[in-house]
């Protein structure tokens, strides 16, 4: 697992051509879904497992915060312990709250590029998400904030996008694509 992230960190050549002939590294996105599923159900008290999880968290945090990568976190049908550790490392307060099929409504914080006003999916949703990070929530904004299905936050030079959809439904893929296409 850690070897996979180190490989991603080293093998992102993606040079882009910017105005004025300048060349530089174009930050890439790392989609983390089934990749971290093996951590589900493992004994995190086992020092070897803990060491591996800590190494993955540290490596991923480095490629997001220091190198400008976007990490897209997608759970598999249950909260993944690695994700909790990674969110803490990124100083994000987001926590898992519920699992079930829900309709999530676009908030005023979602960029205009997110064209869908609502999405419906089977989701591991979040709570304790600051208002500015909430992209799609289960209630309209006039009500007490409900579970969050899509969240996005800047972390250092990069971004963290969380999409709770466990089935990779078309609407969720569209939202992720639109969030990835944002500058900054």
Note down, in words, how this protein is organized.
- The protein has one domain (29-180).
- The chain is 27% helix and 29% strand.
- It is built from 4 helices and 9 strands, in the order αβββαβαβββββα.
- It starts with a helix and ends with a helix.
- The relative contact order is 0.16.
- The model is unreliable at 11-27 and 33-37 (pLDDT under 50).
Attribute tags:
alpha+beta; globular
Q: What would you say about this model in short?
A:
The chain has 184 residues and is α+β, with helices and mostly antiparallel strands.
Integer count of domains: 1
Strand content: 25-35%
Number of strands: 9
Q: Supply the number of helical segments.
A: 4
Tell me the overall shape: globular
Distance between the termini: 28 Å
Helix/strand structural class: alpha+beta
Order of strands across the main sheet: 3-4-9-8-7-5-6
Helix content: 25-40%
- Cα radius of gyration in angstroms: 17 Å
H and E string: HEEEHEHEEEEEH
**For the report, how would you describe the main beta sheet?**
7 strands, mixed
Mean pLDDT: 76
Unreliable stretches: 11-27, 33-37
Give me the secondary-structure topology.
Blueprint (H helix, E strand, L loop, with lengths): L1 H9 L4 E3 L5 E3 L3 E4 L14 H20 L3 E4 L7 H9 L5 E12 L11 E10 L6 E4 L10 E8 L2 E6 L6 H11 L4
Parallel strand pairs: 3-4, 4-9
Antiparallel strand pairs: 1-2, 5-6, 5-7, 7-8, 8-9
Helix pairs in contact: 1-2, 2-3
């Amino acid at each position: 697992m850690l070897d996979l992230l180190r490989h991603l960190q080293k093998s992102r050549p993606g040079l882009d051509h910017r105005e004025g002939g300048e060349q530089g590294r174009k930050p890439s996105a790392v989609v983390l879904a089934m990749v971290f599923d093996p951590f589900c159900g493992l004994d995190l008290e086992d020092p070897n497992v803990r060491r591996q999880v800590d190494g993955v968290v540290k490596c991923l945090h480095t490629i997001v915060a220091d190198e400008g990568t976007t990490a897209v976190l997608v759970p598999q049908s249950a909260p993944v312990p690695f994700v909790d550790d990674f969110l803490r490392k990124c100083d994000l307060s987001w926590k898992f709250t519920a699992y079930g099929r829900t309709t999530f409504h676009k908030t005023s914080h979602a960029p205009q590029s997110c064209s869908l006003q609502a999405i419906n999916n089977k989701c591991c949703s979040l709570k304790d998400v600051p208002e500015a990070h909430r992209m799609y929530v289960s209630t309209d904004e006039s009500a007490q904030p409900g579970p969050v299905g899509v969240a996005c936050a800047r972390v250092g030079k990069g971004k963290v996008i969380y999409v709770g959809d466990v089935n990779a439904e078309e609407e969720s893929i569209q939202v992720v694509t639109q969030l990835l296409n944002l500058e900054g």
